[in-house]
What we know:
The protein is mainly beta. It has 12 helices and 46 strands.
Amino acid sequence: xxxxxxxxxxxxxxxxxxxxxxxxxxxxxxxxxSMMPEPLVTDSSNQYADDESIQExxxxxxxxxERTPDTNVATSNNTGTNVSDEQSNxxxxxxxxxxxxxxxGSNLRLLxxxxxxxxxxxxxxxxxxxxPNYQRAVNEAxxxxxxxxxxxxxxxxxxxxxxxxxxYGYYDNVDYAELSGNVIIDQGTQHIEAEKxxxxxxxxxxxxxxxxxxxxxxxGNASATQTQDRVQKNGKTSLTDKAAQGGLIGVADxxxxxxxxxxxxxxxxxxxxxxxxxxxYAKRLNRPNESQYELDEVMYSTCPPTxxxxxxxxxxxxxxxxxxxxxxxxxxxxxxxxxxxxxxxxNFPIDSRRGSGFLLPNASISSENGLEVDVPYxxxxxxxxxxxxxxxxxxxRNPMLSGEFRYLTENYGEGIFxxxxxxxxxxxxxxxxxxxxxxxxxxxxxIPRLSGEAKYSHVSDADYLNDFDTLGLSDNTLNLARRxxxxxYNDYVDGELKVETFQTLxxxxxxxxxxxxKDKPYSRLPQLNLDYRLPWAKNFDITGVxxxxxxxxxIDDGSENEKSGTRFYNKLxxxxxxxxxxxxxxxxxxxxxxxxxxxxxxxxxxxxxxxDGNQSVFVPQASIDAGLHFYQAGSPFGxxxxxxxxxxxxxxxxxxxxxxxxxxxNIPNFNTRIASxxxxxxxxxxxxxxHDRLQDLHAFTPGINYRYIDxxxxxxxxxxxxxxxxxxxGGVTLDNTKPVFTSxxxxxxxxxxxxxxNNVWVDVSxxxxxxxxxxxxxxxxxxxxxxxxxxxxxxxxxxxxxxTNQLPLSALTASAVxxxxxxxxxxxxxxxxxxxxxxxxxLIGIDYEDCCFGFAVYGRRYYxxxxxxxxxxxxxxAEVRLSGLGSGSSRLTRLLADKVLGFxxxxxxWKD
Length: 912
């Protein structure tokens, strides 16, 4: 929320007014010389201070901005217990004493660990020194009463002892007290300084006058539970958590408070948030009652006070804690003191409650869309539903209107609509562009484990997802799902019932031709899937699979005859697993049944009678899966370096499978395909993905896995190799084509993962054909020299496979995220197809980050995944981020998270 730090500062200012009432209960005064009271100034309508006065307040506030880049903001200038000590004490109380395992292995040092250790900011806001007299007075008070001194760490401020000191003091033992000359008041983590503090309960007036300074450290506002949560999250807290915990410093000329009405007024207030590293001022602050606040001439920025690159200025701000809303009037956003945009009125939240109003605008620049400005408006329609309406303004397109509607019901679930409309797009031959996405989720309140979901997706054209950063979908998708689904599970059954259709976008098939109706997926109208197990036999595992559906695909372009109908598939299996620490053996028997029936339209189109349109087939299957485990302690590199320790595990495996041949050439294929080859697939019961074919498979598969795990539990090497050998040729085909499995073996398959250094990972997988030519190989090398840098290099080469519709590809992939110094970094990623001599996707950019703001400029050139023959899209994008405002997620970070392996932890380290 934009002005929540302002609201937090007001709360702290009022501590100075509200906390003064406790002076009537306890006060420790250095000198008790009696003195006559001076007239008390209570008029809150004095002439506003001039600009020099507010500048004086800012100068006083700047005393707490320390120019030491290595300073810990939570502990600077503190002589008492700090945040780290508090977290350590809590962590020690929560965690049992353990023996630390030293780190083993080493890091690869090809690049410097850090390029530039200079801080991003020239300084930071720090708390003032703790008053040493406070703890001393607390200790002495406890000793005089024969009681131990209270532990102030974690003690709520309203329960902590109050201590006051000054040069002069007066108290009439009834209802009047006055302190003057270097007045200091401490209670817990709250601290006030002033030239004079007066309390007159008879007139209901309290006042702090002359160079008022107040602070409330965040550690004092965090409860024990909050602090414990912070420790368990490695000390990281969200922006909202930080704002709620306080951690503020404020200075003012004076503060007046009416103890009867609750009205208070302060002038020339300057404040800083240590937790948020933000600061600002208000020329005048007035609190007419306990729930309303009025500020005049307000400024807020997260930049250093010595170099304020941006700031928000408002003529006035009104806050209401009852409604949870604030109103800003005549607000101007400035960059380098130059006005950038102006809002005459702005309504915003000051707590977690929702309310209607404008949200923070977004802006970006690209060569395709030009300048894009998004202005969202939020509608708080009811506690259980709301809406957001956004206007997108482009310099190269007509404006787009998009909306989001969210709802939550007590018994019928929750959902969200997203839609957009752009009329007469100048960049798309004047066509209208539109989209609609809907998602609904439901869980039964009366039947446990019963849930449901619904999904709808629609776009106007195949390029829509490519042109716009769409809510609901981030990548190009050929088939957009539309479905309604029910799910249920318990200890014995896991089932789903769904109806599903698709919107298929215009695209090219594998032959470079436009997709035809025959290439589109079947609709399921409906489909019922059940996975179940029967608890009849104690030592046997009896399981079953049932898949029943009506498949429909309309053929309107004459690309083939329509083949729609019903399919019923059932499989019942019984196994007797025998397992031990040294190995296992799992024999299994299965019986499969497949029944299909064409519908009336398909019978006519294919000139079939009803009997020919019905097909039924039974196929039994038997298999034995066995493996051994050989364990040996120590490192395989012990002859060279035995410091890694750990153990090695060698696991050979052998599986035998037999299922006979049954002719299935007259059975339609609704949604079945042949699986791609990989290590795990070699040990499955079938090569068909789907239930339109029951494979005849007579084969045995030997394989072996070797793993090395070091002393800290890190898997340094995990490698597997296997090959499937066929005793009989396979005769079942998908679509009356030649048999697929007629060779002697599948070819050799391997899969390895290695971590030779603590910051280097290497993955290699591949397969050979049965003649031991290359089928495919993929490699991925990841090097992370530091927490905020990353380098990836990958290679993939695969041959054409007509059985799986695998296209040939020879491509290199590379990505890099590395800092130039502590403020600048380079971002790059690319995918190059050297068979086509074509860069399929490339991005390069620079990113800047400091304590005040950040920006990125990057260029991207890429092809539409749905039509690689089209010309590539080229875009130059720019984005600006303001520290402390917005979610921190941008189009660039979302794109890189999808394209760059391991980007998200690197991004978190860079932001921290």
